[in-house]
Amino acid sequence: MTAVGADRRQQLAYVATQAADARLNVEIETEGMTLNIGPQHPATHGTLRLVARLDGEQVVEAEPIMGYMHRGYEKLAEVRTYPQVTTLINRIDWLGSFANEVPFILAAEKLMEVEAPPRAQWIRTVLFELSRIANITLFLGDMAVQLGAITPVFMAFRDREFVLNQIEAVTGGRFHPNFDRIGGVKDDLPKGWIEDTKQAMEKIRDFCDEFEDLVLGNEIFQSRSRGIGIVPPAIGLSYGLSGANIRASGVDWDLRRDGHEALVYDQLDWKVWTHPDGDSFARYWVRLQETREATHMVDQLLDGLPAGPIMAKVPRIIKVPAGEAYAATENPLGEMGYYIVSKGDLVPFRVKIRSASFSNISITPWLLKGVYVPDIITILASLYFILGDIDR
Amino acid sequence: MTQLSSTEIENDVAEAGPQPDKRREAWAGQLAEALDDGFVAHHIIAGSDLWVRVTRDSWTDAAIAARDLLGCQFFDWLSAIDWLPSPYGRDMDAQEDNPQPKAADPMEQGHAGGQTRFQMVVRLYSIAEHLGITIKADLPNDDLRIDSLIQVYAGANWHEREAWEMFGIHFNSHPDLRHIYLPGEFEGNPLRKDFPLLARRVKPWPGIVDVELFPGEESS
User: Fold this and answer.
1) What is the pTM of this model?
2) Would you call B123 an interface residue with chain A, using a CB distance cutoff of 8 Å?
3) What is the pLDDT of residue B89?
4) Is the Cβ pair A75, B191 closer than 8 Å?
5) Which fold has domain A73-391?
6) Could you give the ipTM of this predicted complex?
7) Closest to A270 in 3D by CA, of B128, B13, B1, B3
8) Distance in Å, alpha carbon of B31 to nearest chain A alpha carbon
9) Would you list the DSSP string of A265-321?
10) Which residue of B has its CA nearest to A313?
11) CATH of domain B15-206
């Protein structure tokens, strides 16, 4: 380095300090650029494509582009018998598959005026909560990995396995149980399952405690998620945000408590968690609390499991009487519902699938306006979507 | 663990049964008053659900009334129903699709009735009351247009794009009516009943005999 170079650097450093001191406002004109994220990108959990127009580091406009995984379930359901539809809809939210089946079956039961016997409803609720744990534990690890912490995602995959094993032991399927039936459930619980599940719940509680420390207590995580992507309750509701996303904005609404569907949550002692902040941190926090709450619910359900049949009397060949019914439940991702129009045939006439992620992600063009590029990842991760749940 | 005894549960249900009904009737009454001529019909299933049918012109008014009068802040979903009986066989349960369109069954609309082939459906929900409402509106067969709900519920945007692409319904004053799922050059409206499902036409459906044994039942 020559002396001249050193002088030049000194000079520049001097100018820089002067500029900072004087708080000179220099308008730096940058040419707008378009940033394309996806369709194959780790931050998109599948194939969501995001096109963001940037001005420097800030997003001017961002638009998610979907449809890379659209499978047309609403059309396919019109040519399948009711029991066959559950096989399809298993694949909507593939991390908590069993939870997808429940609202469909409940809507069909509403039309048929069949009610599942108590034991079947308890088993349903147990599996529903296990699906929630299997789903949200992955989120807890995944959001951390997107913010740069590698370890949590391995821990999440490790501990999620205990729950998947329990689901597999009952249903035979780790990801696609296809276990719920109109009028009940397919099989009873296997021997020794209750004890094993209680042990698994212990492990999940340890996992939650660890994450509360490791992730929520982490300074980097906090500084990257607090105050990022704030959703005001009224705007969130008008966009149809549901589940933990809206509870993190302080809206005390949970279909498990407030819905009218025939699951046994009203007989448990539990709490709906909300957070007043509405930012990415709050969404993570609420989901962590919900996971822990779910383990307590599973314990209570297993303690109170009634004896009795697991199937109501339904005909061998299921014809659903003409009518319309909508049933929605609080799925891991938010409100999931099915609007079934029946004409008294073997197949539904029309099935409208209300999936949580589609509405949850529809707020992103509004929410991403004006944020910085790294915060796109935080916001997308914290809204938590599953591509199958958007594209259906 | 607060497990209720069975008698308590029965009492609980008996009390809860007729109560929401009155609330739903009150809702229907409020809407009828607010919309006047725009209110066509309603249907209530006790303790379960409420359907209201309005004219096409009062579609947005109905949504505003539901939001402001009934407190339905939560936009649940919006879609459409094609009431045309499928020209490819009634049940779609034959081993092969019926390649020749047969004489159509008479069109039958569902709850709260209807007169035309396409019907809009929107579902709104009140967080405070824990009640939902399904609002429908008929679209004239020769003019599939309806006002957009974006000004009332911002979330209607994507749902209307989906309905536009799947049913070919045009939404007046929608700023951004583009394909959402299908590729841009896609032709046709897949969820219309007269749109053939090609997979069924090229290969017979193997799943027609599909009877599962119940637990504990022996195969005969």
Assistant:
1) 0.82
2) yes
3) 56
4) yes
5) Cytochrome-c3 Hydrogenase; chain B (1.10.645)
6) 0.80
7) B1
8) 20
9) GGGS-------SS-SHHHHHHHHHHHHHHHHHHHHHHHHTPPPS-SB----SS--PP
10) B214
11) 3.30.460.80
